[in-house]
Structure formats: C-alpha cells, structure tokens
Design goal:
390 residues, Ubiquitin-like (UB roll), Herpes Virus-1, 4 domains, five-stranded antiparallel beta sheet, 22 strands, elongated
Length: 390
Amino acid sequence: MNRQLQVLLLSKGPDNEKIRRSIILEISDEDNVLSLKKKLSNITGLDANTLNIIFCGQKLPVDLNLDKLLLGQSTSLVATVSAESNGTQVINHSGDKSSENQNDNGSYFVYCKNCRELKQGKLRIYCTACNSTAVLLETEPNDWKDIFDAGPLIADCKDCDEKQKANIVFKCRTCHEPSPALRHVKRNRYDRDCIICSEIHPQIISLSCNHASCLECFISYLDNALQEWTFFRKPLGFTVGCPMFDCNAFVEDIHHFHLLGLEKYRRYQRLATEKFLNVLEERQYCPFPNCGAAFTVELFENESIVHCPECSNLYCIHCRGTDKCHCKDLANDGSVETIKTISKPCPTCKVPTERDGGCAHISCTQCRTDWCFICSKEWTTECQWDHWFD
C-alpha cells in the first residue's frame, strides 16, 4: 500500500549556510532505506551515497524496511548530507541492535492519559535546544537506567551544529500523545509463569528481581495494597514491593499505579500526600465538617489564626475554634483537664481521642493515621503482636 512520507533534508549551501527543505515522497510497504535514498536523490540531484537517514537518534542501515519503523501519519524522517556512505545499525524498541521490529513486537508500554488505558508506546528523541529530531546520540542507552537514572543523554544536533542534551519522549502508538513509560510492563517473551496465579500471559510486570506477575494479578495486588494502605517502603517512600514473599524489589515509578484506574490513582495520590504531611511539623488539618483538608502553613511569631486553602474558612491552630479563638476561655475551663485525663492526642494531628472499649488500634477520623492507644505511636505489627487487645 502506497502512502506519503515527509523527509526533512538538512544540508549546507556554498557559504556554509544551513538549508532546511521539506520533501514529500511516495513510499510503499516494500521500500527500504536504500530505495528511499534513491528517491531523494532523484528529486534533489544529490548522490544517494552521501545521504544519511536519521530516526530516533540513529543512522538507519540501508537494508532496513521502512515498515519496521512503525511510522505514524505525522511522523517524519530526517536526511543529512555527508561524505559517509555506510549507516550503522538501528536500535529497536527493546534497545537491542537489530532491524527486526514487527508491528506487534514493540517493547515499550505507556499509560496514555488521553486513552485512559495501558497502550503500546513508541520512543522519540529531540534536541532540548531546538526541539529538532535531527540528532545522533553520542552513546546509545543500553537499558532503562540509562534513560531515566544516568543523567542527560548527549547528542550531535544537525540543526544546532553542536552537541546538545537529548530529550527522550514516549508517545502512545494509538493517539500519539506524550505518555509516561511503564518500564516494569513487558512482553512475556520467554513464557514465564505468573508467581501469583502460575499461568502464562502475553504481558507481565517484572521488577528488578525479574519475578513475573501477570497484569490482572498485579493490578489486584495494587488494589489490595490501596485498601490496606501498604503503599510504603522505608526509606523509598510511597510504593509497593514485589508480590513475591521476602523479595526486596519495588516499583520504581509511581506512574505504574495508573493501572488501578483514574479514580483509585487519585485516591492513592491523596492518601500519599496526607501521609507525607503527617511527618511535617508545619502540617495542619482543617477542623471544619466535610473538609478536613491537609496542608502546610508557615506562621509568623505569635500568630494563631490560619486560613484553610480548601474551604477558605479561618480557625485557631491551638484551640481549633471555628467561630472564634477560645484559648483564653479554655485556660480556665476545668473540662480541658478532664479531656486530657480521659483521652490521648493523635500522634499526628494532636486531636484528643478517647478510647471507649475495643482494641488498641485507633484510626484517626481527622487525619486517617493508624496509631496505637497504648504506645501513642503509629500502629505497627509489634503493637499487634504485643498488646492489640490490651
């Protein structure tokens, strides 16, 4: 099937000035890089051997079929002019040097916020200075750490004529919108069993430990972690570990929690924010009914009245009076001492809490902190083992 392809030809004139030319070519499924060069040569009069075709930071080999590149309708290739006639090998979506990249064999998966679901993705590379795609990477990334954790990639930008930082962008293959890459979602190329259900599925979640779990089981695992709020690994933060018992691997990117769905992901964000605020000295919890917003505030000396950014109401941070400050009245009120005697403050938000029977496990209705009425500290398994029913 024939289609049109845009090629951006970058060259230099007699005075070394840059010439940028957009050329539309008719191509077919049988065309490869060599035939593309010949078509460009027929239009421009340039020697085909001096043309280099660039895509995703690499010079493409002459024997690579264009249909292997999975080009979208709006995707263009870049052609540069040089004395070189031999291309290098192209890197496919898995990072291996190969020209075999079938349409159903992509290695990148993204969570597309436009499609609102897990999608196959594609990688694109741009110059951070001019946003050009006419870049050649100085060093090829070998794995995900080289992309996300090893610092910026350096590329030779053919538009800037100098070395620049390269920006790697992942896009949804369906709608072409930029989307976060989910590095733990992989194709099950070696038919590994799910460690939870023991079945073989085409897509798996594989952490740094290489334990494999199918998407359905892993999403159920995330859902249970959200219900029980086990989204925390010291000192890593708000994430989850591998489903395999006693494995220390963990999810390295919170974008994977989009797999829960939009509503549950937002709940994860809200709870993680609240838990984070719990450890801050400047935290506040709005005392107004149907609000309870958590936020931080920086108070000036002798200041006690704060403004809730969520419901816009004022209250006193000491007595938590919502109509006016009652600090002076409470100073002479005997009931205050009674409250102190029969209650304990929540270790997070300091709200007085009375235990009227039941176990020692307290769930604060104000800040949602789970704490121990015996220890006056955050609830732990030690509390459960030692004095749950004291």
